[in-house]
Structures are given as structure tokens and as C-alpha cells.
């Protein structure tokens, strides 16, 4: 079961690609990989991720039994470029009134939670999906209830504090949620009256509200709950940008990943303008028939990343050595292989060697099973948290 | 290989007569780039193009430029070669295109008409072009992936103008060229000026791998279509498999680059890269290339590579000619350097490459070279030592430390004191731009810094030198390493195949041993640069040139306003042969372009 699951989860590890370039490049395509190439070992990847999560060497054998999960279907997928091009046509700069009101309300909660900090801030959002609701889009199928998000969040916060001492974590969740148990002097839990069935949209609203509030007084890393900080992040902010965005080159993936973003506090208004344009575009996507017909309710899933990519449309090929601008912000494109590593498709340096050099390791999709395996192992070794 | 010119009216009142006069000037000023044809075109209203042609493929008038497509929507002035134009032509014929010539220019025009800007990603070649779109009423500029062919642009009295050479733009009637403070700073720090900046205010270089569109209302921001970066293969194939793939790709690249209607040759130093190119041409492709090398006559201690190069050519059974450049040759050329160098380039190999190109042009029209091998396969020993810097310093500081220690021209710490404002700009636009290399995971120091070199040093110094020095004699140089497939494979090499120390470029060395005894390679390859020994042996003359150059610079309006800083530079230069030569070249160039007050 696990083997089948893992194969489906990691089946798209790419052959090496040397350079980002426009699609359709006949002459530009690299020649076939040399004989001897094979895909990355999925069990090896999961072993490394589980080891990273637990801090002790683990070897996944395939006999472990995580919960059941549906595999991803790719039959009905459209070319991602086509979807992003369509979404780019829906770009907006200013929020609708209802969204503006929602963000303004949230901003007050962040203002109350603002605390002085000597280092950087981390922004993490997680709201439990209501029972019976799963992620089921054309390109992603996941049952979040299979994962112990409280444990994942604990690990996420602990890694921020370990590698960025003195930092302040803002954990955003639904009012009255169990995540309030994670509050601590350097962890501000902000509870919002939000629609938990639409977590991606609420997250985008909350992030803009945070950026507009006094809480955004320091450089801030935005993290998916399943993204573990692996190195001190201060050096990333030395790269001079308003927003650092991570990207990959997989032909079937949205090139910019929403899960890790670096928001510099040097020019906060530029960050706010960008996030506002992103959220305004999000609203437009949610109201679009083509997008809704393809993805379903993008306010639940996919819309955050799609609106980000829509805003960036036309700036490809991304390069870390070519700063660009969009919606008033200076952007730096940072390759996922270094700054948001998952060992997945489109990451240039997918090698599992020198994992310690990755700034953030992201347990995307079914990689989250590594957390469960880490917990099992910790318990088995008497090291349960 | 050619010289292109373009002029577009940005404001009303710029008559077509002025545009025609501008492109005519650009053609005259670039005549050395194309002795085989002089073409002019305009739309009768707002755009004019010119072209100096060096005929290499399809020598007939059917290949003349500027060239329009059958619909007359697009007209192009194009400098370069497309090595995969036969494949593209077959694809386009399948789409219904018909061709009247055998030229790659016509294929490029048809490709643009068929696929638009996306066609650029299909091209294997070196090129720069200006293309007028009659329907959209806009001019498009584009440059090849790596920056083998140059393209400069600027605005002059309500006209947008573009040309293959900087000096052609600087000498346009009505132009009042002035040194650009940041451009000068970059030159002093690096020995070249990285695109998009140039040493002249208001004149820009289109960056490699980008295109831009200019309409009468103004220009859009240049847009990249290619971005080189290294990858690390998730599963490292055996070294033999990597070598096989690279050999095959490089052989295909050489084969494409040897397609020509004119005599062909090859640069052959005694190093790995050019030797491998010659070996594959000779042994895999059975081509009898004429090979050429330059050495330095006289003192045996001057780092001559001709003996080793001749032995390599003999082992490969290739005809070979070595030129022993005499002191008189070099000195005469060095003294005349300012007259024929297009933009300041402090590389000490410019003069020898100029002289070697002159000699080669008597025998061949096209030559292949090993350029790009060092940047792709991490061949520079200077990368060692970066590790400690990047572990302890913020990324931009680590890079600055690298330039301070490993690439001694004028030290950044000195320049920071002398030109604080320009230093701040250099740090922001150059060091910070490339700072991510210091953080990249899974790479070693050689892989990190070679990416910076690939983006900056290769096009700004190496390829600029090769293009300008060879084109001064209408010799076309082609670079097999800079083919997309070869670049992709090189970029995917794991750290172990890109060592920082010891025997560098092990993959290429391993390949070469299939055809040559490794002992035949020169142990301490120096390339074609004027040896320090040569320059020291003629110190009085180089001192004299330096003094004259300093006098020129001191009298220039630019340095007159920066007298104390300039005196500090002059005082610091004699201790460093690169600094002294760089300042000498700048002075010679300023004098020749006429930037004195």
C-alpha cells in the first residue's frame, strides 16, 4: 500500500534540465539523459524527510502503513501554461469592497497580536478543514484529516525557533481552534472568524491583513505548515528584494510555489501592494467560470497559488540572477532546490545529498507521511514529544 | 557575420532622411564587420535599417540584407549564424513556408513569422538582430543566449538607434558621448563592463538571452527568454555515461558549426578545450581543419604554447600554423589598440588574439574555438578559496571578498574609498544581483562562481574580445561549447565532476585522452594573453604607454572632476600589471573616441 502510494506521490521526479527557457524549445531541449539515469528513490526521499523531521536516522522500508489516500489523477489536466495565461487575463489591482472589509477586520486582530521582536517573523496559517471536506481537485487529492497537523505545526514552529533564534511566530487559525494550544511567548496565535472550508482564500486575506498591520515590522517568512526551516534565514533577506518567491521548472507545475515566501520589511508598502493585487486577482479567479469549472472552488484550494502565478505571468523564465518587478514590488526568484526543497519535479538540484544546505524543506503532498513515520519512530525510540 | 544598424523615430519631426543618414553612418562605421555587402532599407516613414555583410552561407545576392519576408510584414537586419537552420527550415516547409535562398536569415524571418518571439528558444546559434514589424509598428531587438554577438542601443535626439558596435553609436553625428561613472567603475573593478551598462552614458548593451520591443512611443523593458543555471542530477550517472553524452553533443555541435561555404579553421592553444574541439573534428567527423596558434617570439620564458599546440595538431594529423608574435608586432598593435578596439576591454589577450585573427584571415574565413569550456566545466583555478568567504559572510560580501582576492584589477576596497557612490551602485546592481550563487545548495564553489562567470565574464570579457578582435579582420569565430545541448549537460554535472582544485574539467580531460596522450597538453596553460614576462621585459615601453594614457584620462572631463581619485588609481596601478594595462586601454580608447574636453 505504502509503496503504491509513494510511487504515485513521487512519480514525477524529472530528468535533469539545465536551464529555464520558454516552452516549445526544440533546439533548446537538452539531449536525453545519459544511460544509467533513473528516478530518485521514493523510499530514499521519504527516509531522508522522515530523518530530517525526527532528527534521527530513519530508513523507510515500505512496510509502514500510513492511512489510506486516493491517488492523483492526471487524465483531465490541461496545460498549466494555458490555465495561468487565462488567469493572467483576470488580474486585478484593487480589492472588492467585501474583501477589503474582511481584510480590515483581520488586520485589527494582527495589530493586537503584534509584539516586538529582535529577529525575523514567521507567518504560518492553518485551519482544520471541517469534517467530511477533502482536497479534491483535478491535480491534487488529499485528505488532510489523515495528518496530525498539530504535530506538524509544532515541528514547524520548533524549526523556526531553532534556526532563527529570537524570531516571532505568528500562527493564524480559526477562532477557538485547537491550535491555540501552541501559543507561547514567542508564538502569537491569532484566531480569526474565518471560513474554514476556504482555507487558501482565508490565508491570502490573513497575509495581507498581517502585512497591513504593525505586526509586519520585521522581515517575515511565510511558511506552509508543512515547511520546515532548515538553516538560518537571515542570509536570504540579504539578497535585496521586497518579496522573494520560490520557483521550479516542472512542465506540469505552477512555476511559482506559494508555500514559502520571503517578505522584506524594508519597503512594507511595496509588499502590501503586491499582496493586495494578488488577493484582488484571487477574487477574480474565484468568480471566473473557466477556473471554477476546472478547479472547483479555488477559495478552498489552488487559488492562492494560481493568483500568485497569474500576477507573475510574463516574467518567465525565472532566474535568481535577474530581479524583476510586479505590482509595485521588487521580486527575487529563488529556486526551490535551495530555498523550498521538496525533492520534487522541476527542482534543479533534486539530489538528496547536502540536504543541510536547503533553507526550507517542504513536505508537500504525500511527503507529509514522513511526519507520521518520524513520530512513530520517535515513540518507538522513547523520544516521543 | 555582419554589422547591423537600426534607427527608429521616437518623436514627430524626426524625418526619414535623418533615419537614413543615421543607419548609413552606422554601416560605414562597421564596414570592417562586413566587407561583402552594404544594404539599406527603410519604411519611408519611421524606421531605417542597414547591414554590412560578411557572406558565409549562400554567397549569392539572395542572402543580402536587410531582408523582408514574403508578406513584407517583417524586415530584418541580422548578425550571426543559425547552426540548426536546416532543421528549422524543414519544419517551416512542413508548415507551408517557401524559401528563395539558402540563407539562415530567411529561415529566421520565417521562424519569427510562424512562431513569433517563441522562435528564439528554438535557435541554436549566435546572433543579434533588429527586426521591424510593419503591422505592429515596432522594432524588436534580440540577442543570442550567451551573448556571442553584440548589440548596443541608445536614444539620440528623438531617435532610437542600435548597432553591433558601441563606437558606431558613439560617433553618430550629433552624439556627444560621455563616460558613464558606473560604467567606468565596473571597468576598473572587472576589466570589462557587464551588460546592460556600457562605458558610455545613455548607451546600453542588450543582455544575452533577452529581447526588447521598441515602438515610436518608447521601449518596453528587455525581457529574458533564456536563463542559464546549474542543476544537479538527482541520480548521478556513471562518469563514463556523462562523458559519452557530452562527447556526442559536442560532436554534433561541431558538425553543425563546420557547415560553411568558405574555408574553415580552428584556434588551437595547448589547452583542453580547443584541443578537444580539434580532436573531435578530426577523429569523429574526419574534417581536416587548419589549426592556428600564437606564441611569443624571443625569450623562451614567455609562456609560449606553440610547441605543444603543434604537437597536438601533428598527433591529430591536422595542418597547423603557429605565429610567433614578435615584440615589434605586439608593441605596434598595442600602441594602435585604441584605434580599433570597440569598447574598453582590459583582457591582456586582446592584442594577441587581434594579431592571430589577422593572420588566420589570410587562410580562412571561419574558425572554431574552445571558448565557453572554462565557464561551463569550471576550469578556472581562481574559484578555490571562496568557501571560507561564503560560510562566514553575507552573500554579497562574500562575492566582494572574492573579487578583492581572486581577480585583482583595482581592489573593490580601494574603489569603494575613491568612488563611494558608484561603489554603492555596483554593489546593488552587480554583487547583489549574483549574490544568490553564494547560497545555492548542492553546489561547490566552482559551480557557484562559474555561473556568475557564465552570466557576466563570458559575454562581457571573453566573447566580446573574440567578436571584436576577430571581426576587425572579418574572421568569424564559432564556439561549439555554447550549444544548448552541451550547455544542458555541463550544467547537470555533479560537484565531483566540477572540482575546485587539482585537475580541473575532468570530464573533458577524460574525453581528450581517447584521442591524445594527456602528456601532450601544456602543463600550465596560459592562453593567448600577453605574458607578464613579456610585459615586464618591455616595461619602459608599457610605462610610456601608461603615462600617455594617464595624461589623456587626466585631461578628460570625467577624471578632471575626480582628480584625487584618479591620482590614487594611478599611484596604485603600477603594482599590478592588470591594473596598469586596464588603465592604459581606457586611456587609449578615450583618446581614440575623442572624449577629451
Quaternary arrangement of the chains shown?
Answer: heterodimer
- Outline of chain B: globular
- The helicity of chain B comes to 40-55%
Gap from first CA to last CA of chain A: 28 Å
Main beta sheet strand tally, sense and closure of chain A: 8 strands, mixed
Average pLDDT taken over every residue of chain B: 92
Percent helix of chain A, as a range, is 25-40%
Largest interface: A-B, 57 and 60 residues
Could you tell me the number of beta strands of chain A?
A: 13
Instruction: Provide the structure class of chain A.
Output: alpha/beta
- Rounded to the nearest angstrom, the distance between the terminal CA atoms of chain B is 35 Å
- The largest beta-sheet of chain A arranges its strands as 6-5-2-7-10-9-12-11
Strand content of chain A: 15-25%
Low-confidence stretches of chain B: none
Low-confidence stretches of chain A: 1-39, 67-72
Give the number of helices of chain B. Answer: 23
Sheet having the most strands of chain B: 7 strands, antiparallel
Model description:
- The complex is a heterodimer of chains A (385) and B (597).
- With 385 residues, chain A is of the alpha/beta class.
- Helix content of chain A is 35%, strand content 16%.
- Chain A is built from twelve helices and 13 strands.
- Chain A has helices at 2-10, 42-54, 80-88, 97-113, 149-163, 199-212, 234-237, 268-286, 289-295, 303-312, 336-339, 369-380; strands at residues 19-21, 121-125, 135-137, 140-142, 168-174, 187-192, 220-223, 227-229, 243-247, 256-263, 324-326, 329-335, 360-362.
- In chain A, the strands form three sheets. In chain A, strands 6-5-2-7-10-9-12-11 form an eight-stranded mixed beta sheet, with helices on both faces. In chain A, strands 3-4 form a two-stranded antiparallel sheet.
- In chain A, a hairpin with a 2-residue loop joins strand 3 (135-137) and strand 4.
- The radius of gyration of chain A is 20 Å and the shape is globular.
- Chain A starts with a helix and ends in a 5-residue tail after the last helix.
- Chain B is of the alpha+beta class and 597 residues long.
- In chain B, the strands form three sheets. In chain B, strands 4, 5, 6, 7, 11, 12 and 13 form a seven-stranded antiparallel beta sheet that branches. A six-stranded antiparallel beta sheet of chain B has the order 2-3-1-9-8-10.
- In chain B, a hairpin with a 4-residue loop joins strand 2 and strand 3 (47-53).
- In chain B, helix 6 (239-257) packs across helix 7 (272-284).
- The radius of gyration of chain B is 23 Å and the shape is globular.
- The mean pLDDT of chain B is 92.
- At the A-B interface, strand 1, strand 12 and helix 11 of A face helix 2, strand 13, strand 14, helix 6 and helix 15 of B.
- Strand 1 (19-21) of chain A pairs antiparallel with strand 14 (226-228) of chain B, so a sheet runs across the interface.
Amino acid at each position: 500500500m505504502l509503496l503504491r502510494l509513494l510511487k504515485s506521490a513521487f512519480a514525477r521526479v524529472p530528468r535533469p534540465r539545465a536551464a529555464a527557457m520558454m516552452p516549445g524549445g526544440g533546439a533548446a531541449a537538452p539531449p536525453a539523459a545519459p544511460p544509467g539515469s533513473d528516478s530518485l528513490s521514493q523510499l530514499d526521499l521519504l527516509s531522508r524527510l522522515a530523518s530530517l523531521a525526527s532528527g534521527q536516522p530513519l530508513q523507510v522500508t515500505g512496510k509502514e502503513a500510513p492511512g489510506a489516500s486516493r491517488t492523483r489523477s492526471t487524465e483531465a489536466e490541461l496545460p498549466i501554461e494555458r490555465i495561468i495565461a487565462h488567469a493572467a487575463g483576470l488580474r486585478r489591482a484593487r480589492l472588492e469592497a467585501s474583501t477589503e472589509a474582511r481584510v480590515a477586520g483581520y488586520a485589527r486582530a494582527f495589530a493586537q497580536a503584534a509584539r516586538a521582536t529582535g529577529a525575523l517573523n514567521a507567518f504560518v496559517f492553518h485551519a482544520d478543514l471541517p469534517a467530511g471536506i477533502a482536497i479534491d481537485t483535478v491535480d491534487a487529492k488529499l485528505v488532510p484529516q489523515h495528518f496530525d497537523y498539530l504535530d506538524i505545526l509544532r515541528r514547524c514552529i520548533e524549526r523556526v525557533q531553532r534556526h532563527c533564534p529570537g524570531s516571532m511566530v505568528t500562527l493564524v487559525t480559526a477562532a477557538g481552534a485547537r491550535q491555540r494550544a501552541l501559543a507561547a511567548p514567542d508564538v502569537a496565535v491569532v484566531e480569526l472568524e474565518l471560513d474554514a472550508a476556504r482555507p487558501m482564500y482565508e490565508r491570502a486575506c490573513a497575509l495581507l491583513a498581517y502585512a497591513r498591520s504593525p505586526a509586519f515590522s520585521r522581515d517575515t517568512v511565510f511558511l506552509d505548515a508543512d515547511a520546515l526551516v532548515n538553516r538560518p534565514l537571515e542570509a536570504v533577506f540579504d539578497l535585496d528584494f521586497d518579496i522573494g518567491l520560490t520557483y521550479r521548472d516542472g512542465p506540469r507545475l505552477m512555476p511559482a510555489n506559494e508555500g514559502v515566501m520571503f517578505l522584506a520589511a524594508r519597503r512594507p508598502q511595496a509588499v502590501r501592494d503586491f499582496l493586495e493585487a494578488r488577493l484582488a486577482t484571487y477574487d477574480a479567479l474565484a468568480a471566473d467560470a473557466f477556473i471554477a469549472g476546472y478547479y472547483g472552488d479555488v477559495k478552498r484550494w489552488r487559488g492562492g497559488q494560481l493568483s500568485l502565478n497569474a500576477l507573475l505571468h510574463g516574467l518567465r523564465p525565472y532566474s535568481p540572477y535577474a530581479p524583476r518587478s510586479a505590482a509595485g514590488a521588487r521580486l527575487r526568484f529563488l529556486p526551490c532546490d535551495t530555498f523550498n526543497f521538496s525533492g520534487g519535479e522541476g527542482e534543479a538540484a533534486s539530489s538528496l545529498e547536502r540536504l543541510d544546505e536547503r533553507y526550507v524543506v517542504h513536505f508537500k503532498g504525500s511527503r507529509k507521511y514522513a511526519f507520521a513515520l518520524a513520530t512513530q519512530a520517535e515513540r518507538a525510540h522513547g523520544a516521543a514529544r | 557575420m555582419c554589422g547591423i544598424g537600426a534607427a527608429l523615430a521616437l518623436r514627430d519631426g524626426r524625418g526619414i532622411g535623418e533615419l537614413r543618414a543615421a543607419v548609413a553612418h552606422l554601416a560605414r562605421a562597421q564596414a570592417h564587420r562586413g566587407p561583402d555587402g552594404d544594404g539599406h532599407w527603410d519604411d519611408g516613414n519611421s524606421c531605417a535599417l542597414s547591414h554590412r555583410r560578411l557572406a558565409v552561407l549562400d554567397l549569392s545576392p539572395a542572402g543580402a540584407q536587410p531582408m523582408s519576408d514574403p508578406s513584407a510584414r517583417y524586415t530584418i537586419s541580422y548578425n550571426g549564424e543559425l547552426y540548426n537552420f536546416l532543421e528549422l527550415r524543414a519544419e517551416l516547409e512542413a508548415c507551408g513556408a517557401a524559401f528563395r535562398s539558402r540563407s539562415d536569415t530567411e529561415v529566421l524571418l520565417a521562424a519569427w513569422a510562424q512562431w513569433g518571439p517563441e522562435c528564439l528558444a528554438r535557435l541554436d546559434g549566435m546572433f543579434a538582430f533588429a527586426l521591424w514589424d510593419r503591422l505592429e509598428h515596432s522594432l524588436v531587438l534580440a540577442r543570442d543566449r550567451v551573448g556571442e554577438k553584440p548589440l548596443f542601443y541608445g536614444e539620440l535626439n528623438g531617435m532610437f538607434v542600435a548597432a553591433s558596435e558601441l563606437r558606431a553609436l558613439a560617433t553618430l553625428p550629433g552624439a556627444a558621448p560621455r563616460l558613464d561613472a558606473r560604467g567606468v567603475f565596473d571597468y576598473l573593478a572587472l576589466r570589462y563592463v557587464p551588460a546592460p551598462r556600457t562605458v558610455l552614458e545613455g548607451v546600453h548593451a542588450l543582455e544575452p538571452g533577452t529581447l526588447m520591443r521598441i515602438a515610436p512611443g518608447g521601449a518596453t523593458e528587455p525581457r529574458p527568454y533564456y536563463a542559464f543555471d546549474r542543476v544537479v542530477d538527482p541520480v548521478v550517472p556513471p562518469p563514463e555515461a556523462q562523458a559519452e553524452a557530452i562527447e556526442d553533443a559536442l560532436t554534433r555541435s561541431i558538425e553543425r558549426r563546420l557547415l560553411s561555404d568558405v574555408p574553415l579553421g580552428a584556434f588551437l592553444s595547448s589547452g583542453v578545450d580547443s584541443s578537444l574541439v580539434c580532436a573531435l573534428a578530426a577523429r569523429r567527423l574526419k574534417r581536416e581543419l587548419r589549426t592556428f596558434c600564437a606564441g611569443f617570439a624571443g625569450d623562451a620564458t614567455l609562456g609560449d604554447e606553440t610547441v605543444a599546440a603543434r604537437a597536438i595538431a601533428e598527433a591529430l594529423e591536422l595542418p597547423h600554423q603557429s605565429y610567433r608574435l614578435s615584440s615589434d608586432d605586439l608593441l605596434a598593435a598595442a600602441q594602435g589598440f585604441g584605434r580599433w578596439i570597440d569598447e574598453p576591454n582590459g583582457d591582456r589577450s586582446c592584442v594577441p588574439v587581434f594579431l592571430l585573427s589577422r593572420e588566420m584571415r589570410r587562410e580562412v574565413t571561419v574558425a572554431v574555438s574552445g571558448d565557453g569550456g572554462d565557464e561551463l566545466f569550471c576550469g578556472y583555478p581562481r574559484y578555490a578559496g571562496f568557501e571560507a568567504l561564503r560560510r562566514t559572510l553575507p552573500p554579497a560580501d562574500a562575492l566582494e571578498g572574492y573579487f578583492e582576492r581572486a581577480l585583482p584589477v583595482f581592489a573593490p576596497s580601494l574603489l569603494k574609498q575613491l568612488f563611494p557612490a558608484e561603489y554603492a551602485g555596483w554593489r546593488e546592481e552587480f554583487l547583489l544581483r549574483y549574490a544568490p550563487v553564494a547560497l545555492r545548495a548542492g553546489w561547490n564553489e566552482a559551480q557557484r562562481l562559474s555561473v556568475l562567470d557564465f552570466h557576466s565574464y563570458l559575454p562581457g570579457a571573453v566573447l566580446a574580445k573574440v567578436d571584436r578582435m576577430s571581426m576587425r579582420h572579418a574572421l568569424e569565430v564559432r564556439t561549439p561549447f555554447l550549444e544548448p545541448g552541451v550547455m544542458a549537460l555541463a550544467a547537470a554535472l555533479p560537484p565531483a565532476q566540477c572540482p575546485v582544485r587539482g585537475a580541473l574539467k575532468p570530464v573533458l580531460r577524460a574525453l581528450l585522452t581517447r584521442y591524445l596522450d594527456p602528456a601532450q597538453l601544456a602543463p600550465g596553460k596560459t592562453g593567448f594573453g600577453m605574458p607578464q614576462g613579456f610585459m615586464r621585459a618591455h616595461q619602459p615601453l608599457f610605462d610610456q604607454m601608461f603615462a600617455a594614457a594617464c595624461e589623456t584620462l587626466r585631461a578628460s572631463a570625467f577624471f578632471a572632476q575626480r582628480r584625487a581619485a584618479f591620482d590614487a588609481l594611478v599611484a596604485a596601478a603600477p603594482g599590478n600589471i592588470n591594473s596598469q594595462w586596464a588603465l592604459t586601454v581606457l586611456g587609449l580608447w578615450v583618446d581614440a573616441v575623442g572624449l577629451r574636453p
